[in-house]
Batch of 3 targets.
Target 1
Amino acid sequence: MIWNVGIGIIMIWGFLAVLYLLGALLLGFPERTVDDVVQFLRPVDLDQAEVLLDPGANLELRWKLDADTYREIQRKRIHIYLELLWRMAHNSMILVEFGNREAARLERSSQQERRRRQAEVIAALQRAAVNVRIYSIFTIVKLAFLMAIRPMLTPSLASFRTTAELDGIQSYKTLREVSTAAFEECRRSTEKLVLNF
């Protein structure tokens, strides 16, 4: 019985993944220029993420609260962190797409010296965005899996600060720095970038 349910869930996820890929292939992603990128980014509060991942805060909650209350609050904290992870994954996807389009544009450019500098910045942006994407997707999968197989047990979020040998907070800070450098290299204002990112 459980085996059939598991196979059914895997088949449904596979079907949904194929539908998504077909939709993305047929509809494609809109072409985003450096001026459009900021509008597609979602804000990520890294201070809140650091508080959620703080082992001291988790220990304090565990000491102060009874088991049922702790479990309820911890599940809320996990859901908040999952939302932050989805935003991180979304932003990194937007920046990878932007980096890909800029890299293609730079290949057609005729200004050698400027092109070389911009290509280095765009490559750094792509690396940082891919690292954030890897961290956020792996962490989302791990948290969702743990919550699905052990709904009554709530894992400590502190153990999810590093996934796939990537520190999530530090990776996102690096992405912010590299994105700012990319915007400055493209001679665009970073004011809106900082607010939306």
Note: The chain is about 80% helix and 0% strand.
Target 2
Amino acid sequence: MALSVFSPTYSFFTFNNEPEWNCVDDDLEPLPIQSFADLNFQYFWDNDTFNPLVVYQRLFIIPCDCNNLKFEPPADGTQQAEFRFTGNTSTLTDNYDNITVITGFAGNNIDTYYNFGECFRFCLVQVLYYIADNTIAEQNTIACSNLFTYTDSDCYTSLLTYRNNEDSMSFDYETFNTFTNKVRLPLYLTRPQLPSEKEDYRKSDLTYQNLSEVLRKEYILKTDYLSDYTHEKIKIALASDSLTINNENARVNDDFLARTDYTIEWNEEVELKQAQATCTLVLSEALAYRNSNCITTGSNECENVEIVNEENEVIETVAPGDTYEVLVISGIRDTGAPYTNQIINP
């Protein structure tokens, strides 16, 4: 059985078991990349059939374009490759034999092989080395990745890092519980707003008192023109338990949460395969500004207020932010009827 490779359904880095040597894909746009360190990803693979007493296997991920590899694997199986992703491999018991997670990079960087604007793929190359002398017994290109393009754009691309707390969205997060996906995408953040969560109340003299206010910061996320296939993956990434976005246009490198629906803006007059999309993201943490109108010496927390009757007996305890209606019998309206008022604990 030949070695076979599978990518998670919603991964931005995908392997095709039948290598595609052309550098053009009519349906899928190339993803931007500034550094090989922009990528964290995972893939599953099933074991090949070979004699482990004669040969051993090494797998290499090598940049490739059209019909050639940018460099050849080392001729000696004990040597390091000049280009290498780093990570870990674990044996699985369900569905696939193994999972490999890529979490780093070492070696020559992207400008060694490509100029800005050039597109390329990554090839997964299997090399079998003789145990006796570590020379190559057999070499096969097993799969090729989707397209990437070398970019120098900081403002209109963003680096996304994301993960879930459990296996989900086709990713295995539990085998490697510190693994995070990482990818650069053609989207950016713009038009910041400062919505607030505010509480106040009106006093009996008709003036208003501020109780508390917490400021948050929101941004509009806007993508380039992308296929529905890529939009679906972005939506999955935005739905993750943990999401960090690094974008120079907004000068942010923070944790975010999607606050509104991810809306694809299809052209209603012309049938196109690609469209832009937008949604609103909010910083996961509130801004440093938090005003709480509590007059409690030496404490940041508001205290309960006790309501007592004429005999000084506690008849109700009002927690911070709660209201309690009382009948005021000592006050008479012009109509001669008693009126009610509210006691509000800020």
Note: The chain has three domains: 4-152, 184-283, 302-344.
Target 3
Amino acid sequence: MPLSRDFVIVALALVVSSGMAGCDSPAPPAVTEATAPPPKATPQVQMQPLTADHLAQIVGVTAWTATYSGGPIECWLEIEEQGQATMPKRIPEKDSFGAGSVNPPTEGTILFWWSRRQDGQGGQLMIQAPHGSYGYGLNKDAFTFGWRGSSEQPRVIGKEELKTGEPGKEFVIVDYDANEIVLDPEGGQKVPRRVHLKLMGRFPVKK
């Protein structure tokens, strides 16, 4: 008896579906959890105490401070200029701060600073110590004020080194070396200027 066309189609469909049922179907792709972005910092403003460096920047002062103890101290400023002559070679010109003082303090603070006026018309250089102080007026072209640019190399003495200075022996408290940066578009032969400041100290020999 010949098979009908509809029967053949149904049979083939059953064979195909049974064969597919025995095959391994591909595993569905693994689902990964999305990584949460890191929490953002909360915007905030926090007040901080004003430091000496911040204050110096505000008022336009370049300053150093040193403490001493264990005996009275004498100090003075030595100045070397190249390519200009705008300041004395020594402050004070004779002797030193503290020399010959009656009952000088055996400990204290030394301040060395300078500032420039906001209008650019000069400034002031100052040395302050417990046994005396000295201020020197700077005109608008003195020191490094008349330069267009400069490079500075400051060096200061260590705290313990200052406290253990050998009596009668000179030592450097602050060493400041400034060199002019010459920007000459015409390629001239201008010699850069230089200012070298040394704040010196000495513990006098006990008599």
Note: The first helix runs from residue 5 to 21.
